[in-house]
Amino acid sequence: MPELMGAEVICVGTELLLGDILNTNAQFLAQELATLGISHFYQTVVGDNSQRLKDVVAIALQRSSILIFTGGLGPTPDDLTTETLADCFRVPLVEHPQVLDDITQKYTARGRPMSPSNRKQALQPKGAAVLPNRLGTAPGMIWAPRPGVLIYTFPGVPREMKAMWRETAVPDLRRRGFGTTTIHSHMLRFWGISESALAEQVASFLALQNPTVAPYAGQGEVRLRVAARALSTAEAEALIAPVADQLRAIAGLHYYGQDDETLASVVGQLLQAAGQTVAVAESCTGGGLGHLLTAVPGSSAYFWGGIISYANAVKVDLLGVDAGDLATHGAVSEDVAKQMAVGVRSRLHTTWGLSITGVAGPGGGTPAKPVGMVCLGVAGPDSVECHTLQYGVHRDRDLIRHLSAHTALDLLRRKLLARE
Amino acid sequence: MPELMGAEVICVGTELLLGDILNTNAQFLAQELATLGISHFYQTVVGDNSQRLKDVVAIALQRSSILIFTGGLGPTPDDLTTETLADCFRVPLVEHPQVLDDITQKYTARGRPMSPSNRKQALQPKGAAVLPNRLGTAPGMIWAPRPGVLIYTFPGVPREMKAMWRETAVPDLRRRGFGTTTIHSHMLRFWGISESALAEQVASFLALQNPTVAPYAGQGEVRLRVAARALSTAEAEALIAPVADQLRAIAGLHYYGQDDETLASVVGQLLQAAGQTVAVAESCTGGGLGHLLTAVPGSSAYFWGGIISYANAVKVDLLGVDAGDLATHGAVSEDVAKQMAVGVRSRLHTTWGLSITGVAGPGGGTPAKPVGMVCLGVAGPDSVECHTLQYGVHRDRDLIRHLSAHTALDLLRRKLLARE
Q1: For labeling, which of A65, A142, A283, B272 is most exposed (least CB within 10 Å)?
Q2: Which residues lie closer than 8 Å to A342 by C-beta, 6 or more apart?
Q3: pLDDT of A353-404, one tens digit each?
Q4: Minimal Cα–Cα distance from B95 to chain A, Å?
Q5: Rg over CA atoms, chain A
């Protein structure tokens, strides 16, 4: 199928028009279409209203050849996308028995009764192919209702939509001759340096044309997206590799990984390579550091556990922090952070002990120990050290906890790299 | 001016169509229009292309009476919004000397030379009023090019757009008779029931007109948004209250809170009201349950801490789980979950002990204990009980951990309510 007019993303949902949710689906699909080299000139958002959706489809058919819908596939009466599309092309709905079986099985597996309204999700316009939904109950469809028009529908749930897009829609588009040039990219990830400082160090790269280098930042992390357009992924990789190598060399230890890698996964790789283990002692993060470490599949190979010592009594009873030191220096102090790290390392018999104690706010700050003050400890085979960070009173509780847990991981990463 | 067809948000920018940025402007404007009670049926995104923008304006004029543009007001050649709008209505552009002065002063204040291209930003269609930009150089406009049509333009920079909206556009809309009614809403939150089951129980409410009731679902939670249109927030509250009360009565214990409340904050309120405390023992969630509990400011009043027993040795050494039972029944078993809950309760001297042990995947599943099988334990003053859940192998590690931690909180919530 030749590409005539490009793709249009149509997001269906009154919740978008009320501002209840942010339209991350439109951004994801825009990025994916760019990667596939498919032109994309319009995005439309419309509510759960059959007539207005019909009008939007009529307009899209005049200016776009690939129509990508998200939302409106659920079991409730205001989920109207499938039946409205059938109506637009005056095609009847038919029930797909294998979809009904799949939905029934998913409900059974979850131990929930399937309600009659769920049966609606097995209906699709006659002639449409099922776009399977591995992660949820509402399948989408792939439908060419007339020559030069190609329709894909997805549920609005981002996780389900993304998996369906990658697993089924992209291969289908390629089979139909779309996506012959490709934009391929790597996201390089940095911790411990500001966006402006990194941008200055790599300023000359930001003007490159192919690959392009673009900086992003958020939640303490800085990223550089290196993207190349080429006929194949291999060609794009060849354009990206030398530039990425130079960027890594410039950033030194601030570079920690790329693409899906996280500080936790990189720390895990380093620990596994060294045959070492870690345990955590957490106060203000309340388990967030352990949660990050265990987000990595297979982390049981090097993460043994930890102690959440939110109350001071737990710091003394379970970590062996000295009650006198606690009274003298306070829970948020380098002395206590060190004893927490040493204590958890010794009680869990690990190579490393990592500790966090701080004032996450919004209450609890004092002039000497303001909100945003956090002490991190790392105890290892040779020594124990501690760092005090001041994240500042203008950052909120969530961000202070996020930065604390990630900086603790970064601390251990740098220790592990220094010992290699 | 009577409201005929509602507002349409038109975001102009190729960077949106490439997915380089997330369209937060559309969500902000959607929320604001909802608050003002101005109907809003469509959002459109179009690139920096004059002809396509003209086409989009022509379509919008047929279905909307208030057109709100963001983006395309800058000094570069691809910033086309102002001149394209003038062209749509065949009106010439005129230079506003006071805008030119303002731009010149801002460049001088920043110590930057003003380039000739910046002069373009002082041009506006004849008859349009300047919408001043306090924070940046590109002003917007307020323009009624013909009866029944009202146009506002804003730069794409969210900070500038928001200030201009609040400081000038909202007062202007109110002067024109818009925003005399308000839409006010509450989000009711439920756990332990599926979206379709709840929707069936409250089916008659989903057809209401004022207030409206709309279901949402995601990550195990189901929500009902109850929204009323009225002349004041107080009037809207009066319309919402009886409906919300009936919905809560129908849902019973499945209802847990509303608006910003979370399962963790509700559990915290119940614990504080009862003068009780809790500690956690976590295996597959790795600290995620503690992290949720401590996301609530002031949680130190009732959350004392916990033990992350990721390795089996930690379950035995620090929680007192019987090594024989662990070998016989396995780490993911009701026996072990119970002993973990009892162990952490006794070691941390709390009223309640809450435990989680499960197979989060993607590896580690067996036919008897598949991925998604999770045992939750709750030990209290009178008894210890356990629940085994099967989240199913099609759910991913993140979601299984998310559901496990939230269901554990829900379990404790129901225990606390039963004891009241």
Answers
A1: B272
A2: A320, A353, A377, A379, A384
A3: 999 999 999 999 999 999 999 999 999 999 999 999 999 877 889 999 999 9
A4: 31
A5: 26
CB-nearest to B297 from A74, A306, A362 is A362
Question: How is B326-375 classified by DSSP, letter by letter?
Answer: HHHH-SSSHHHHHHHHHHHHHHHT-SEEEEEEE--SSS---SSS-TTEEE
Q: What is the pLDDT of residue B1?
A: 39
DSSP at B61: H
Q: Which residues share a beta bridge with A40?
A: A7
B249 is written with which tokens? 């009565």
The CA distance from A341 to A319, in Å, is: 8
Same domain, B39 and B135: yes
* Domain housing B330: 263-419
pLDDT class for B4, splitting at 50, 70, 90? low
Beta carbons within 8 Å of B117's beta carbon, 6+ residues apart: B75, B76, B77
pLDDT in tens, A102-113: 988 888 887 777
Q: Is A2 within the bounds of a domain?
A: no
Number of domain units in chain B: 3
pLDDT value of position A91: 97
Give domain status of residue B151, yes or no. Answer: yes
Q: Is A98 within 8 Å of A91 (Cβ atoms)? A: no
Q: Is residue B2 part of a domain?
A: no
DSSP-derived 3-state class of residue B43: strand
Whether A276 and A415 map to the same domain: the answer is yes
Q: What are phi and psi of B154, to 5 degrees?
A: -135, 150
- Asked whether the beta carbons of residue B43 and residue A45 sit closer than 8 angstroms, the reply is yes
- Nearest-Cα distance to chain B for A415, in Å, is 23
Residues of chain A positioned with their CB less than 8 A from the CB of B399: 159
For the segment B395-412, what is each residue's pLDDT rounded down to a tens digit? 999 999 999 999 999 999
Burial track A285-308 (b if 16+ CB lie within 10 A, e otherwise): bbbbbbbbbbbbeebbebbbbbbb
What is the model's pLDDT at position B152? 98
Q: Which two tokens stand for residue B82?
A: 């102002």
Task: Return the pLDDT at B3.
Answer: 44
Which domain CATH number covers A191? 3.30.70.2860
Q: Which domain-ending residue is among A199, A229, A258?
A: A258
Which residues of chain A register pLDDT less than 50? 1-3
Looking at residue A289, its pLDDT comes to: 98
User: CB of B34 within 8 A of CB of A18?
Assistant: yes
Residue B260 is classified by DSSP as: T
Given a cut of 70, whether residue B71 has pLDDT beyond it is yes
pTM of the model: 0.80
- Tell me, yes or no, if B41 comes closer than 8 A to chain A by beta carbon: yes
Which tokens belong to B206? 């989903």
DSSP B100-157: HHHHHHHHHHTT-PPPGGGGGGGEEETTPEEE--SSSS--EEEEEEETTEEEEEE-S-
- Cα distance between residue A361 and residue A251, in whole Å: 33
Q: Domain end: B175, B199, B214, which one?
A: B175
- State the Cα–Cα distance between residues B357 and B331, nearest whole angstrom: 7
Residues B33, B166 share a domain: yes
pLDDT of residue B74: 85
Q: Does B105 score more than 90 pLDDT?
A: no
ipTM: 0.80
Domain contains B1: no
Q: For chain B, what is the radius of gyration of the CA atoms?
A: 29
Tell me which chain A residue has its CA closest to the CA of residue B279: A308
Residues B268 and B138 reside in one and the same domain: no
